[in-house]
Amino acid sequence: MINVGQINRLEVVKIADFGVFLDAGEYGSALLPNRFVPNETEVGQTVDAFLYFDSENQIAATTEQPIAKVGEWGLMKIEGVNSIGAFANWGIKGKDLLIPFSEQRGRLALGQTILVYVYTDKASGRIVGTTKFNKWLDNTPSQYTKNQQVDLIIAERSDLGFKAIVNGQHWGMIFPSDVFGKLFIGKKLKGFIKNVREDGKIDLALQKVGVAKMDDLSSKIVDTLEKKGGFLPLSDKSSPEAIFAEFRTSKGTFKKSIGGLYKQGVIVIEKEGIRLV
C-alpha cells in the first residue's frame, strides 16, 4: 500500500536523464530527481523515498527526511505568507508546507518558528500543517499508570508550567517543581506519568516519582561508580548543573539517593565526591 506523506519502499520502473521513475501504485509514477538517486541504481531495484505532492499537485519523491511526516509534530520556520496561509520550511528542498489561515491558532509571521502538526486534508487530499492541536489530542481516554514512561513533545509554555503532548495522543502538564534541565517548544524527550486526575488531566514528571525513581537513580549511580573506578567527583555540594549533566536529574533527588546509599553502606561521601565502599 502506498502512503503519501510517509516513507515508502518503491520499485524503479524507468531511468531518465534527469532522474528515475518509481512505481507509486495508484498514484502512477513518481519522479526521483538525479540528486537523490543512489549510485548504480537500475530498473527493478527498490528505493526508500518520501512521497508528497509538488506545487502542481503531482506525486513526487525524495530521499530527504521531512521535519515531520503525516501524523507527526515538528518545529518549523515560517518562510512565507500569502493570501491563503503561511508556508513553513518542511525540510524538503523546493517544497514548503502550507498552514492555511483556518488552521492557525494565531496569525503566523515570516521568520517565526512554531510547532506544527502535519496531516492530510480529506477534502483536498493535500498535505498541510496546523497549529490547532486540540482536535488531534484527547480523543481517546488515557490508560496510563503512575511512573509509566512516555514520549513527550514540549508544545506550550504557560504560567502553570510546560504543556506537553503525550505519546502523540494526549495533553499533559509539567509543573515548575518538576522541571529541570532546559525545556523549549518542540523539544522531544522521555518523561513519566506522575498522576492521572479524576477529570482525565495528566500530570507529568521528567523522572520517576517516589521510591521507583530513587531506586533507578541509585542503581545508575552505583553503575557509574563501577565504570569510573569507584570514585565520582560529585557530592551534595556539587552544582545542580554538574549533577544534571551526569545523571539527568535534580540536585535534590541526587542528594536523597546518595544519602540512601550512604546509609546502606554502599558508598562513602568524601569532600571531593563519592566513593564505593
TrEMBL record:
The family this protein is said to belong to: Belongs to the CvfB family.
Species whose genome carries this gene: Vibrio eleionomae
Entry GO MF terms: nucleic acid binding
S1 motif domain: residues covered: 3-64, 69-132, 145-207
UniProt name for this protein: GntR family transcriptional regulator
Record-linked PANTHER family: CONSERVED VIRULENCE FACTOR B
